[in-house]
Write a structure and sequence with these properties.
Blueprint: E1 8-12, H1 31-45, E2 49-56, E3 63-65, E4 70-76, H2 92-106, E5 112-116, H3 117-131, E6 135-138, H4 143-149, H5 154-161, H6 163-176, E7 179-182, H7 185-191, E8 203-205, H8 220-229, E9 235-241, H9 249-262, E10 266-272, H10 279-294, E11 301-304, H11 312-318, E12 321-324, H12 333-340, E13 345-348, E14 364-366, H13 371-383, H14 385-402, H15 405-418
Parallel strand pairs: 1-2, 1-5, 2-4, 5-6, 6-7, 7-8, 9-10, 9-12, 10-11, 12-13, 13-14
Antiparallel strand pairs: 3-4
Helix pairs in contact: 1-15, 2-3, 3-6, 8-11, 9-13, 12-14
């Protein structure tokens, strides 16, 4: 018989493919899913029961048990097909109604609702209001920042990404939630700007975490063995992740000619895409291959298929350097994982992680919009063993000191305690019986 839980926490992440074994590389399925799953499992190990609430679509089961204390619960909305996160907000009222039925049927006390991204924030605030549960919201990315940093025509971007609607709803979520969790100090500043004007006292900075039981340094001999196992030769620069323009893989390709000129045996390995690439992903990858050929470096660029989650730590270890080259990146979890594995890392300045590292000690950072400068930063690390060794040592130490999931979970619970939102577990919260407004007129204001 299992021990009683310390409380019951609801995690809400409505978009993408959320599962015990997530299908990374599929649309809208990446670092946020890892964040939610790992934080949930850590809170479970600490004694809490955690229910991850998400959207049910395609042929997904309604309930999936991750372990004794953590489960994924799926509620349908908007039909059976995948819905992109930019437009999922239109179906959130239906999702809230279905999730409300489950919460009401549980007839229990919920300690906390923690929502992730703005679509889930809408749902989280609605449920928090109905069931009198504290609501912590983690934006992950900020609509106004993404709008202002995107390439391309602003009107076309507006049509695709729904920025005006998103920013309006984000403002309401940030005003109404109990705690607003920024992942970096830079993101906290964005929440305080004129687009949102969030209350400073409700914002706390809690970075994403990584699993230090999987991502850790190994010996040089083991690293060489992994390199041989994956068929890699020379000094390998690695970039990996889903296929998206904001990831900046084209900028990295443009940064590589000065690296190849200075480091004779350097190779670039791009492990991008998904296990089941869409036509759009295939087109983008073909574009990267064409660019490599145009730059005259195709013979030194290795395109790898999607890397499975169980191989990921060893792939980091097989690389001589990891490059986070994003055009914009709210945090950069892959870079932290690489650092944790003892792989020297060059980090984009167009994001939040670089401000939490010491240049030349934990990592090196450079602007990917200046490809020669980014390339020279890579070449400097590959050319000098002393620099590489220093980054490997101190990068892994920084990752362990700042970014483990246990530390992240403790910070979350500390916020719960210090804001005095912990309630007695025997108290039954009041349930506000309130109909869901029609979709056509619905917004976060409707639930206030």
């Amino acid at each position: 018989m299992s021990a009683p839980s310390l409380g019951r926490i609801v995690m809400i992440s409505t978009h993408g493919y959320v599962a015990a074994e997530p299908e990374f590389g599929k649309p809208d399925t990446g670092g946020q899913v890892v964040y939610v799953l790992e934080l949930s499992k850590c809170l479970g190990r600490m004694g809490y029961q955690v229910d991850i609430l998400t959207r049910q679509f395609e042929d997904q089961p309604a309930v999936e048990q991750i372990n004794e204390r953590v489960s994924v619960r799926r509620f349908p909305c908007g039909g059976d097909a995948f819905i992109p996160k930019e437009t999922l907000c239109e179906s959130i009222p239906e999702w809230v109604e279905n999730a409300s039925r489950w919460m009401r049927a549980e007839n229990g006390f919920f300690t906390l609702i923690n929502s992730h991204y703005w679509d889930a924030g809408l749902a989280g605030q609605a449920l928090a209001s109905r069931f009198a549960v504290p609501h912590f919201h983690t934006p992950h990315s900020i609509g106004a920042w993404k709008r202002d940093n995107m390439d391309g025509d602003p009107e076309e971007n507006e049509k695709k990404y729904n920025f005006r609607h998103r920013i309006r709803e984000e403002k309401v979520i940030y005003d109404e939630c109990d705690v607003l969790i920024a992942t970096t100090p830079a993101q906290r500043k964005l929440l305080l700007n004129s687009d949102y004007d969030a209350e400073p006292e409700k914002i706390c900075v809690i970075p994403p975490g990584y699993d230090d039981r999987r991502f850790f340094p190994v010996s040089r001999a083991s690293r060489m063995a992994y390199k041989e196992q994956f068929g890699l030769q020379g000094k390998i620069v690695l970039a990996l992740g889903r296929m998206a323009k904001n990831k900046g893989y084209d900028l990295l390709l443009r940064a590589m000619p000065p690296v190849f000129e200075r480091v004779e045996d350097a190779r670039l390995c791009l492990a991008v895409g998904s296990s089941d690439p869409s036509p759009s992903e295939v087109e983008q990858i073909d574009g990267l291959k064409a660019l490599a050929k145009e730059l005259g470096i195709a013979d030194r660029v290795i395109f790898r298929d999607y890397i499975s989650d169980d191989q990921l730590p060893d792939f980091y270890r097989a690389a001589d350097l990891f490059a986070l080259c994003s055009r914009y990146e709210p945090f950069g979890m892959t870079a932290v994982e690489a650092m944790a594995c003892g792989t020297p890392t060059v980090v984009t300045t167009e994001g939040g992680l670089y401000k939490q590292t010491v240049w030349g000690l934990d990592a090196v950072f450079a602007n990917p919009f200046d490809p020669p400068a980014f390339g020279h930063a890579i070449a400097a690390v590959l050319s000098h063993d002393s620099i590489s060794a220093q980054l490997a040592k101190h990068g892994s130490q920084k990752a362990r000191a700042r970014f483990t999931w246990t530390g992240i979970a403790h910070q979350l619970l500390c916020q719960l305690q210090t804001r005095r939102v912990q309630q007695d577990e025997d108290e039954t919260p009041a349930i506000i019986e309130e109909p869901i407004p029609e979709v056509e007129t619905w917004s976060a204001h409707s639930f206030s």
